[in-house]
């Protein structure tokens, strides 16, 4: 038996557009759909922010 070929590692950093969905059926039926983003990064090799973006990230946090 031959082993399955290894999958290539994902290219990072990457931005994924995602959608979170939730449905509640009781006591009142309610559905939620929220679009959001997820970052995939290598925590051992984090990207460095350009100086022009550092001030923006400080205000956001």
TrEMBL record:
It holds the Pfam family DUF1365. This is Uncharacterized protein. It comes from Streptomyces katrae.
